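Readers outside the structure-tokenisation community will struggle with the description of the input data as it stands. For illustration, here is how one protein appears when written out as sequence plus structure tokens:
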Amino acid sequence: LETRKSWLNSGPAKASVCRLCRRMGFIPVDMGVLSASLDVENMPLHLFPSWRLPVLLSLALFALFYLYNFIRDVLHPYLTAGKSAFYKMPIELVNVTLPCAALVLLTLVYVPGLCAAFLQLRWGTKYRRFPSCLDKWLTQRKQLGLCGFLCAVLHMIYSLCLPMRKSARYKLMTAAFKQVCKAGAVRLGGIMAIGLLSLLAVTSLPSVASTVNWREFSFIQVTLWTTTGYFTADVSL
């Protein structure tokens, strides 16, 4: 058994097997020593391992911002002035919380790239391995971006459903003459932002990203992200 194991873990034996696989039309992947075979066999049984941390982070951000908005808009007026604003919890507070979580998630998509570029400039080489935390962060940028895109889409849906409530319609009617231009600019910025985010989400798919070169992909990601951030900041202000 030990002799067989030593042969299977030898480099020439692996090279021979890889050459045989290439001749047969397959793409060989070296997953390490023989003891790693159990992990390879369990890979098809894993349930979205790369999505666990982004989803948990998205839920944590949503809960944090929702708690802050609840204390500021509902609990504080109730304790200080006796105003009951608990009706805002199902729709209005969620609608205010979603863009906050989306902005933070989209920021987390591009921050690790800046950190990686800074480390490469500091080290003077691009062949040195990043720290494990930064490396894991870089590999989960797509999941973070899609979670942020989901929050932005849900914010758009909640914004469309918000005028259906009677209290919201009353507020819109009383402030219609004061905020016509501002409301139009906000809607325009929101429409442009969700459109650009949709384009960013589509271009991040492997089937689409493989059809463009590196310069085109960088132009789409950097330029569209900057433009999206501008429209998002305009809506927030």
In short: The radius of gyration is 25 Å. The CA atoms of residues 35 and 41 lie 11 Å apart. Confidence is low (pLDDT under 50) at residues 1-7.
